[in-house]
UniProtKB/TrEMBL annotation:
Its cofactor is Mg(2+). One of its GO terms (molecular function) is ligase activity. It is found in: Cytoplasm. Belongs to the class-II aminoacyl-tRNA synthetase family. Phe-tRNA synthetase alpha subunit type 1 subfamily. This is Phenylalanine--tRNA ligase alpha subunit. CDD domains: PheRS_alpha_core. The keyword Ribonucleoprotein does not apply. The gene is pheS. NCBIfam families: pheS (TIGR00468). Mg(2+) binds at residue 252. It comes from Haloferula sargassicola.
Length: 338
């Protein structure tokens, strides 16, 4: 029995040593320790061992089992190490890692955040209104008569219901004054829609930022100071801004604001970025007649309003020469803002 155990142990260890992959090692394990394995079978012979030899033989069997189990484990680790090394072969771990692509905010989002940040510092609060608007809030309440060109079906996107995609965010001025009393100081960023011919400075959907300030004694000086400060905060102290007299039905006097665009590879040129003016008393009167009070009586209050094109602001901010780049989602363009 003793010699048999020793022989089995020796043979088992040799077999384990000879195994050269996971498969042959597993075969060896089953052949030795499995149900019909060599060590299992010889262990079964314990039954017939005379009592006085049992301790010694038992000891021997245990030693053999421990030695074999340890050899199996060691061999398994050694084979794994070889497999790992093979898998890593040909991989140069000193090469620089592949760059991870981070997403980033769209330039229009960046410019909107920046504009809101500057205006909030001056005390303007955010307001909003629907993009599908009725003619009353888009036109009538803004002193824009039925024969005004902005109301032309060919210039505007109408629904069968008579509603339309708002042509400007100025409708939010009306919605705000319907529910709040002076002082009112709001800004409303959002989409506006027009059947414009699409070119380097026009899109049929664009982004506006509306502003309204109503209080006692609001003057044209406040309007000019506020907007000049705004543009300098946005584009730097050197920014060239000009106010051109213009006409809007809902303001009197009215202006258009131009800012110098320094686009790459182009001669600097003025581009129109906003309309603004002192709120026309007719607008206040219309609000009061809807509210049935005199909260906005032109006798007591004045106000200024402005609406600027965020797309145009982005063009100036980054020297973008074609507005269409902002909606084409060309990653070569967008990546520059990452
Ligand atoms: N709503 C005008 C437009 O879309 C822009 C504008 C002009 C807004 C004068 C104003 C304003 O609030 O006072 O062209």
């Amino acid at each position: 029995m003793k010699e048999k155990i020793e022989a089995i142990q020796a043979e088992a260890l040799a077999r384990i040593a000879a195994a050269d992959d996971a498969r042959s090692l597993e075969d060896a394990r089953v052949g030795i320790l499995g149900k019909k394995g060599t060590l299992t079978e010889v262990s079964a012979g314990m039954r017939d061992v005379p009592k006085e030899q049992k301790a010694e033989i038992g000891q021997l069997l245990n030693t053999a089992r421990t030695a074999i189990t340890e050899a199996l484990e060691e061999k398994q680790l050694a084979l794994q190490a070889i497999a790992d090394a093979k898998a890593l072969e040909g991989i140069d771990s000193t090469l620089p890692a592949r760059a991870v692509h981070h997403g980033s905010l769209h330039p229009l989002t960046l410019i909107r955040h920046q504009a809101i940040e500057v205006l909030r510092r001056m005390g303007f609060a955010l307001a909003e209104g629907p993009e599908i608007e009725d003619e009353f809030h888009c036109f009538d309440a803004l002193n824009t008569p039925a024969d005004h060109p902005a109301r032309n079906e060919k210039d505007t996107f109408y629904f069968d219901s008579g509603k339309l995609l708002r042509t400007h965010t100025s409708s939010v001025q009306i919605r705000t004054m319907e529910t709040q009393a002076p002082p009112v100081r709001i800004i409303a960023p959002g989409s506006a829609y027009r059947r414009d011919e699409i070119d380097a400075t026009h899109l049929s959907v664009f982004n506006q930022l509306e502003g309204l300030y109503v209080d006692t004694d609001v003057s044209l000086g406040d309007l000019k100071g506020t907007l000049e400060y705004f543009f300098r905060e946005m584009f730097g102290a050197e920014t060239e801004v000009r106010f051109r007299p213009h006409f809007f039905p809902f303001t009197e006097p009215s202006f258009e604001i131009d800012v110098k665009l320094h686009a790459k590879g182009q001669v600097p040129k003025w581009i129109e970025v906003a309309g603004c003016g002192m709120v026309d008393p007719a607008v206040f009167e219309s609000i009061d007649s809807g509210r049935k009070d005199d909260a906005f009586s032109p006798e007591k209050i004045t106000g200024f309003a402005f609406g600027m094109g965020l797309d145009r602001l982005a063009m100036i901010r980054w020297g973008i020469k074609d507005i269409r780049l902002l909606i084409e989602n060309d990653v070569r363009f967008l990546r520059q803002f990452a």
